[in-house]
Amino acid sequence: MNKKAGSFFWNFKQLSTLIPTSRTMRLYSLGFCRPKIVCAKWKLRSLLNDLGNRKQSSIRYLFQDAFIFKSREDSCQAKGISTVRVPTVHRLLCPRRIFFDAKYSVVCVDIPDNGLKKLSFHHEASSEDVLIKERKATPLSSRKLSEECNSLSDVLDTFSKAPTFPSSNYFSAMWTIAKRMSDDQRRFEKQLMFNHPAFNQLCEQLLREAKILYFDHLLFSLHALVKLGVPQNTLLVQTLLRTIQTRISTWLLPSDPCTAPAAAHRILVDQHVWKIKSIFTLQTVMKYIGQDTPIALKKKLEMKALKELDRFSLLNSQHMFEVLAAMNYRSVVLLNECSAKVIDNIHGCPFKILNNILRSCKDLRYRNLKLFEGIADYVHTTFDIWTLKQVLFLLILFENLGFRPIGLMNLLMKKVVEEPGSLNTKSIVSILHVYSSLNHSCQSQDKEFLDVMAAALTGCLHHISSQNLLNAVYSFCMMNYFPLAPVNQLLQDDVISELLASGKMEKNVHRLHILDTCLKLDDTAYHKALDLALPQPPSVPSCPNTKVAEVLSRLLGGEGYFSKNVQLPHNYHIDFEIRMDTKRSQVLPFSDADITCATNIQRLVAVLCVPRSSYCLYSSHPRGILAMKMRHLNLMGFHVILVNNWEMDNLEMENAVAFLKTNIYSVEALPTVNANCQST
What we know:
The protein is an alpha+beta fold.
């Protein structure tokens, strides 16, 4: 701390020597809009005389891009900052050699004993010149530089001939050019860049401009420097990084959203939101404004984004998903418009963008079938350019969203069968999870696919963890497939004990009970010999659909003809149970005498009230848990009827009665039932 404090006061003292004693400077922070640069005339004679009598040291210009300077002596002011023209005054600079002090975790500057290096700025200045003036030279954009130059050295040559502000454009242009090169050519060009005489000058200029660059220029410069291979422990990279961190922590990331600074930041955004002209700036503000921002300010930012929608580039549309997710605000209109632009320009979209879009849709609970189908079809069409890891990441996100990309999943099954050597433990567990959760199967290659996955899992048994083994076998059980070697290893006492002692005990107990049920009910070799001593899973509270109960009561003739909240063996629960004859033409009452007389002719009907999440997205295809439950209920002698909660709530009573009547009674018995209903 003493070193840091001493360094701060030393720099402050040297800075204070540059300011005349009769002048004071006030700094006022402005908003987000870039102020217009105006000229101001200062008298330099007294300043030069004062500077000539003082020893100079290294000077750090602390001017920001949005400050107002006021002089009490001269009633003049200048908004914004342009190029600072310095008279011929020697700056004393030491060679910067960077190393990190592990004890204090600060950047130290090593000053050699052989003296200090002098660096002069050769700018002519008269007493009528100004310190702040508008730059007349037109800056070159990074895009124009990257189009006109063919190599990194060409960019540096352009800089050495006529340097312009900001210098960040040169680094961005060099990285854009480097991306177009092959690996060998890029390596050679980087070596030429580091040896170029103008490279150090460009770095020095960027170092001086760090405090006055706009935030997007800072980010692009830091990104380009790192990508071009500039060491991260250099003064330039560390200065840019610290400047970016300071601005983010000061303006965009308050530690506590309830503090006064956070409230002040939001007030400032609220006042200046309509003045923001850059889409990038708008999205940055939206991204870092915070999830606890009042809904009124979120709506205001949404309206601003909708107003600028015509100016959105493809990158802006792609980035908006992540922005809204960071703000925790689901703007369906904005998401729909951005989705349409993403779908129209899906070809060439990189993996990172697709991954961020799907993650954001999951966080925002945004379901757009056309968007998901567009991404899945694009990956399916360009399947050969993607790695197995990338395809698997996208499939995991699709599974989280409940979307089942049939074509892509069939293609992955084919690749797994053809190239089983590309699988590792993590990919095996992930693939089994996705396919079992979405209840996906392809009749032509389903058996071969499961055999290959079982063989791959068997090959990993010597190093697989107990948790991964349970997850893989659980997925196999959901797909009604039971590989012998993995199941035998999972049923070892030490493996079961480890699973029950882990931090995921409740989840593991639930899955072990399902494994026990599958091995007893499904046609396996374990249904007679299996005996697992497991703790009982917690009971799940049930809340039957009251409208379905009312419809059944009206259809069957009273509550005595069906039972609610029925608990079955193997920890299964059904909402309603109905007993019928074997022809499904007559409903039997729930009395002991009737049950005894009709034991040989009754048929059990299970009515399950299921939510929308039990199906794949916008389809009637049941997901893995529901499909397994239906399979087991059929093995227990039940005829399963699925009632969709959201559809039943929207039906009138007469339509609801007709719907259940069609599903409960057989086709042959329906005319008789209709006659009985009319007579009653």
